[in-house]
């Protein structure tokens, strides 16, 4: 059995993934990701959201940030299988926001909005996961890294060991995966994590200059295919 296989089977429970993130579980990116989500929801006022669930909520920062931006009637629930991440999320608990250590699908509750932010690329049977997520809420929001791009292919880049991503997507295959699992795509937009997320923009400063220049000259979608650094945020039902 390969080291990579061993890592992916137990990394989220035994602390390996926490170490991979430098002990932060990407908490520093939460404010930006929550902002993207709120922007997407603001574009669709017809999507009435009062109960919000996040599957694979990590350290809880996204839900905590959303709570400060949504009406006081909104309720938030986060599910996480990592004891380390769950312990970090407890700092954000209150009477409107709770965090549960365990399987979201073992809980029978149904929500207005179910989110999986940078999650299903980590799941071995991602299609079963997506079908279950679709059934758990009226609306769904997914954030999916677009790891397949020309630059990465030419360099032999592998997101298994560096990021724990065992499924690699383009924009088109991410959208098709949702359609295949009974979702109806309502809207989506690209997010430039390489330039905007705190844990990445310092490392990609030079390449980001090229990205911005090419976006103006060609298009964001083309730059995502060529250089990478992007994800897609999707609203579905």
Automatic annotation (TrEMBL):
UniProt cross-references to InterPro entries, sorted A to Z: SAM-dependent_MTases_sf
An example Gene Ontology biological process: methylation
Molecular function (Gene Ontology), one example: methyltransferase activity
Keyword Methyltransferase attached: yes
Protein origin, superkingdom: Bacteria
Keywords: Methyltransferase, Transferase
EC number: 2.1.-.-
Organism placement in taxonomy: Bacteria, Pseudomonadati, Pseudomonadota, Alphaproteobacteria, Rhodospirillales
Protein name: Class I SAM-dependent methyltransferase
UniProt cross-references to Pfam families, sorted A to Z: Methyltransf_23 (PF13489)
Record SUPFAM superfamilies: S-adenosyl-L-methionine-dependent methyltransferases
């Amino acid at each position: 059995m390969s080291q990579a296989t061993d890592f992916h089977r137990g990394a989220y429970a035994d602390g390996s993934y926490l170490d991979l993130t430098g002990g932060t579980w990407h908490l520093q990116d939460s404010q930006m990701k929550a902002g993207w989500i709120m922007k997407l929801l603001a574009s669709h006022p017809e999507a009435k959201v009062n109960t919000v669930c996040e599957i694979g909520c990590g350290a809880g920062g996204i839900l905590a940030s959303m709570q400060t931006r949504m009406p006081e009637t909104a309720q938030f629930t986060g599910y996480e299988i990592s004891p380390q991440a769950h312990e970090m999320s407890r700092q954000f608990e209150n009477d409107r926001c709770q965090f549960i250590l365990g399987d979201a699908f073992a809980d029978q509750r149904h929500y207005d909005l179910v989110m999986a932010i940078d999650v299903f690329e980590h799941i071995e049977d991602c299609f079963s996961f997506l079908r279950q997520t679709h059934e758990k809420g009226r609306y769904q929001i997914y954030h999916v890294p677009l790891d397949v791009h020309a630059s990465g292919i030419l360099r032999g880049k592998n997101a298994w060991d560096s990021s724990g991503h065992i499924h690699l997507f383009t924009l088109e295959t991410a959208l098709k995966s949702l359609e295949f699992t009974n979702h109806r795509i309502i809207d989506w937009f690209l997010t430039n994590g390489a330039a905007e997320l705190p844990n990445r923009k310092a490392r990609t400063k030079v390449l980001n200059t090229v990205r911005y220049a090419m976006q103006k000259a060609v298009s964001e979608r083309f730059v995502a295919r060529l250089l990478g650094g992007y994800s897609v945020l999707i609203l579905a039902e």
